[in-house]
Amino acid sequence: MNNRKTLKLAAVIDGPGWNFSSWRHPDMPADAGENIDFFIQQAQLAEQAKFETLFLYDVSHVGPGNIPYYLSMFEGGTLMSALAMKTERIGLSLTASTSYTDPYNLARQVLSLDKISKGRASLNAITSNPGGMVNFSRGHLGKADQYPMHQEFLEILLGLWDTYEDDAFPRDKQSGVFLNPRKMHPINYRGKYFSVDGPLNISRSVQGRPVLYMAGSSPTFVDLATSYTDGVFMAGSSFEETVLLANALTAKLVEKGRQPADFVRSVAQNPIVGRTDAEAHAKYQAIRALGPYSHRPVPLFMGSAERIANEIQKWYEAGAIDMLMVQQDHPYGIQDFIELVVPILQERGIFHRDYEAQTLRGNLELPKPAFRTI
Ligand SMILES: Cc1cc2nc3c(=O)[nH]c(=O)nc-3n(C[C@H](O)[C@H](O)[C@H](O)COP(=O)(O)O)c2cc1C
């Protein structure tokens, strides 16, 4: 069972895509990962189509054998801040690793993005590969540290985002009262990995807090996500696996006394869409031919627009997803999806025709969380 009025759509605007060869396509800017004009174009395209949010994955340790996008990409918070100025309604979601930064820094960055965008920011907080800790003076830590560290990180992040009550800053010029100090709540957190006094130096968000996601698949992931986040990003490698994980998440939410409707479960797919199945297959062959490896997995969502819409409807109505993240390998992947599939989803009442709210939370049908102290 799905638990929202409509399916949510995210556009994953990760440069040339998560593969080795799409940058070689004649219509893909070879420097797409560092090309701000390309990102602006993708962001505005998704906003015109009323996608709820943009989404960026992240990596912050690389080697020469990585995919081109890994080797040549913008830092997500900086990029999203630029896109905030070129868009008005669409959400701005970035991924960052809790193994590779400090919670105070990330809390400031994401809440700043939230203010700059007037309530459209969200963070996908991931644990990432432990190998990268050598870039962040944490080479002594390993895989076993990552989830305990992640948990502390999320508690601090949420605590810092609720440093101030909504009306903590009267900024009254007459009386000279800028801050009501009784409404400021430093967290004074002492953990094994992080120690943070607070307070943060930015007021509470218009959407309460930035939307928080986690990505993963393990039982620890399910447990932490249902305790701390507003939603998840699941691998989505098959319909059956996704239904199982989505149901496990829902059961855990209910067990913890949370409303499943206040939680967004999403997967990413890289649809290759045509007017006919044959046209979609020709597009797939065109990118496959770019090499360097002839093997490129056939996307789970490939074929005519009608076929893709049916598949999305099946996943949505089975409660496997609340949000579909549209990722592109083909340079027209998102555009094709918008032109061919979105109208069918709208016709069927599965996807909205316009933004209903000003904030990302509102558009995701998530309630504004009340202020709380941890
Ligand atoms: C759907 C999904 C998306 C992910 N995205 C990223 C990412 O953008 N950057 C990254 O470094 N790791 C990413 N990861 C890896 C996770 O951070 C994590 O290391 C991994 O999933 C281990 O957690 P698990 O054992 O609970 O699944 C992703 C994982 C999943 C399942």
Describe the structure.
The chain has 374 residues and is α/β, with parallel strands linked by helices. It has a single domain, classed as TIM Barrel. It is 35% helix and 14% strand. It has an 8-stranded parallel β-barrel, surrounded by 6 helices. A two-stranded antiparallel ribbon has the order 5-6. Strands 10-11 form a two-stranded parallel sheet. Helix 5 (143-161) packs parallel to helix 6 (219-228), helix 6 (219-228) crosses helix 7 and helix 9 packs across helix 10. The longest helix has 19 residues, at 143-161. It is globular. The protein binds flavin mononucleotide. Flavin mononucleotide (FMN) binds next to strand 3, helix 6 and strand 8. Residues 57-59, 95, 97, 126-129, 215-218, 220-221, 233-235 line the site of flavin mononucleotide.
Quickly give the structural class: alpha/beta
How many domains, in number, for the residues? 1
CATH class call: Alpha Beta
Beta-strand residue fraction: 5-15%
- In CATH, the homologous superfamily goes by the name Luciferase-like domain
Count every beta strand, where a strand is a DSSP E run of 2 or more residues: 12
Enumerate the spans where pLDDT stays under 50 for 5 or more consecutive residues: none
Overall shape: it is globular
Question: How is the main sheet built?
Answer: 8 strands, parallel, barrel
According to CATH, the fold-level topology is: TIM Barrel
Mean of residue pLDDT values: 96
Helix content: 25-40%
Radius of gyration over C-alpha positions, nearest whole angstrom: 21 Å
Distance between the termini: 33 Å
- Could you give the order of the helices and strands? EHEHHEHEHEEEHEHEEHEHEHH
Question: Count the helices. How many?
Answer: 11
Bound molecules: flavin mononucleotide
